[in-house]
Amino acid sequence: MTRQIYKLMGKHIIPLLIITSIFILPKHIVYCAHEPDFYYNLGVSYYDKGMLGEAISAWEKTIEINPEYVVAYYNLGNAYEEKGMLKEAISAWEKVIEIAPRDIDAYFNMGVAYIKNGMFKEALDIYEKAIKINPYDPEIHYYLGIAFINIGEIDSAIEEYNNAIRLKPDYAEAYNSLGNAYYDKNMLDEALSAYKMAIKINRNYADAYNNLGSIFFDKGMLNEAIVAWEKVIEIDPNNADAYYNLGNAYDEKGMFYEALHAWKKALEINPDIIDAHYNLGLVYNRNKMFKEAINEYKQILIRQPKDADTLYSLGIAYKNNGLKDKAIREFEKVVALQPGNTFALNNIGTIHLEQGQYEDAVSVYKEVLQSEPDHVEGLYNLGLTYYFKGDLDTAINTWEKAAKINPFYKDLQNNLAVSYKKKELSNKVVTTHERVFDEDVKFDKEFSVVLPAQRRGEEMQVVNRRKLLPAVTIGLTKEEATKLARVLKESNVEVKFCLDLLTDIDLVELEEKIISNNKQW
Length: 521
Hints:
The protein has helices spanning 35-48, 52-65, 70-82, 86-99, 104-116, 120-133, 138-150, 154-167, 172-184, 188-201, 206-218, 222-235, 240-252, 256-269, 274-286, 290-303, 308-320, 324-337, 342-354, 358-371, 376-389, 392-405, 410-422, 426-436, 478-489, 495-520. By secondary structure, it is an all-alpha fold. The protein starts with 34 loop residues before the first helix and ends with a helix.
């Protein structure tokens, strides 16, 4: 099975949309005898000292004395927003617009506040009004683009980012966001050009380098991605995302220790990067470091106890470490969260099968097939269970159902050939062998457990297909198997396969001796 690409856990390496609130507070303090000015300036002094509550009280006193004091309303809106009082902030800025209808800064700040609170349609309405007042403000076009991107209107966002760049050619943030929009449309070359322009304008633009790395990664240009992310770390040594992404690139290159170091560094900076724990668990599991994998998965479950992907992977780690009962408990948790999850059920069935608990295995595999009647692996494993129970007829019937779904499933055909031989169904043996050795058919090389790989949030791509039945030569005498191999050698079948088959004959003899000794014992 081909290993899945490890990208950002549960997600791609996704560029950030950074929104900077630009709130303008007058810094000059002009004391005068007029009482509203006194309270207004007092509010400015309080704000400069970080005394936000006192500043609000002073500005509220200002507009109580003079309800038309527009700058006090403006600053009140800023202060309310900073305190998380969105409703009050919007009300204050609306009062600014009522008194001074063409005050573009009030519109701007309202839009930013809406975006920060996820109210993108409201931001859209505000910025469209602002553009009618001043169509030449690049920042209004830029933030309008951000509003569009967040409601899924990517083409409109691209148009607005380009408008911002046309009005302000050195607008690095607009180029970066333009790259993000192209990335979302899978226009990687256009995104690459946009990120490069952002970096050309601002050589220390960490986010643009991070996004550039994501493009290189998606294009398979791993060395270039590593250089980009190393540049991010040079600019910002505490950039956890860059370390995380760097770990993904190292892992893709097979640089095990470098990947571990990068992910651990990301967690040292930001312990809440769940995906770094997940990737560490996958790599530890892949390298048979099961205790370490288990520890990483447990770190995730402390924060997200109902994460089905992690529970499943923990079950795989327990199973690989020989802790079968613990593995079953984790798989059962997955099924409780996702009833009918065939991957978890299939693993439970396999554990029962390996332990000789055939009735339990049959029950679980039937549950798999109840959820997905055409589940080939479920039928395959159910057939194995019947085979080891000694119910050869039911095993054959089950495998024949699977063969109708996937007639080119090599191990399935092998097992059918073995079973037909035992039943002395010679015609079916020949037909099945012909299917197995059809040179135009691309068969599965072997059964394996494929752990759910990086993109989190997608369905688990795990197939539990343990090859428990021996190869095709079992059921044939040594003379018959040797003859078959030599005939195949003279046909169109590749020589290596025939040599491997002859080697298997010796292994089968050895296996038969072991079985014989066990029986005597």
